[in-house]
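testing teh design pipeline on a random one, pls ignore if ur not involved
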């Protein structure tokens, strides 16, 4: 199967790229990947996407974006790409069922996934008190006691941000010192709403089934082994994200964390004709609206790139 443009990923970046590419008559193919609709499909309420007076469901928003892309002419394929060759044009991609695709330009919008604690109860309460995005979900915890797990800048910034809403924020870190930079550590120490528990890990998330909600965390002290329960209504996991870029390792320039590098004010990567948009290249903002903006940029840049090829 050949296309002028193939878009890998179907979150806000991929869907927006598809809308713009289809309207530019590029007849794009969108290959959905393992998580059709991306990370928004695992968040419940979305209150910060422009255009909606009421909170909307993340899954519904992604269904609307996909329907819009199809309406303007994008072709959506349910497949997961297992290998990519960016060494020669047209680029070739192979799906996990063996389907072969080729394209003149590629937009990578494969996103990132939050790193989780990998305890079973965390999965159970995901979206019902357990979150990996303070800017997405902090608002729902006004006046409540909550906890943040992690020790880097992300965890520090999320804990500080959450004090805008929460009554109290407990920062839980497994080591005896934080990795966050000095400025963030000073801000944490100066904030009366924040308590830091060092050398502590979360063993279990405890809550109710009807309705699903978090009531406390089972904590274990790393050196003494002592266990205790901390009453909280929310847990924010801030132990980093992993960009979904293993397919492109050794073929595209990436930073030390595996995020794809792009030129300033651009989605262009180190390979001409390959563009990257959304959380696969953005470790700072990681919002649906910024991902959508980058998807638009990628499609416009792909359109320009293809125009130069044909002249």
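output:
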């Amino acid at each position: 199967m050949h296309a002028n443009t193939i878009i890998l990923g179907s979150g806000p970046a991929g869907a927006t790229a598809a809308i713009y590419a289809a309207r530019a008559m590029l007849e794009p193919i969108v290959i959905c990947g393992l998580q059709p609709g991306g990370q928004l499909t695992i968040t419940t309420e979305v209150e910060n996407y422009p255009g909606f007076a009421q909170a909307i469901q993340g899954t519904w928003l992604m269904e609307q974006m996909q329907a819009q892309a199809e309406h303007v002419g994008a072709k959506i394929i349910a497949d997961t790409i297992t290998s990519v060759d960016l060494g020669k044009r047209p680029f070739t991609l192979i799906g996990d069922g063996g389907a072969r695709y080729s394209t003149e330009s590629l937009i990578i919008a494969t996103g990132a996934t939050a790193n989780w604690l990998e305890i079973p109860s965390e999965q159970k309460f995901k979206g019902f008190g357990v979150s990996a995005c303070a800017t997405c979900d902090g608002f729902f915890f006004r006046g409540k006691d909550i906890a943040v797990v992690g020790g880097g800048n992300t965890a520090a910034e999320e804990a500080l941000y959450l004090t805008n809403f929460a009554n109290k924020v407990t920062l839980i870190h497994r080591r005896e010192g934080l990795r966050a930079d000095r400025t963030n550590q000073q801000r944490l120490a100066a904030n009366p709403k924040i308590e830091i528990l060092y050398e502590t890990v979360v063993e279990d998330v405890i809550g109710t089934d009807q309705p699903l909600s978090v009531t406390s965390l089972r904590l274990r002290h790393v050196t003494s082994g002592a266990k205790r329960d901390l009453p909280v209504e929310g847990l924010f996991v801030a132990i980093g994200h992993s960009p979904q870029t293993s397919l492109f390792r050794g073929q595209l320039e990436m930073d030390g964390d595996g995020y794809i590098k792009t030129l300033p004010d651009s989605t262009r990567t180190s390979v001409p004709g390959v563009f990257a948009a959304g959380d696969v290249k953005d470790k700072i903002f990681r919002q649906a609206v910024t991902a959508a903006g980058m998807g638009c940029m990628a499609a416009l840049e792909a359109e320009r790139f293809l125009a130069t090829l044909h002249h």
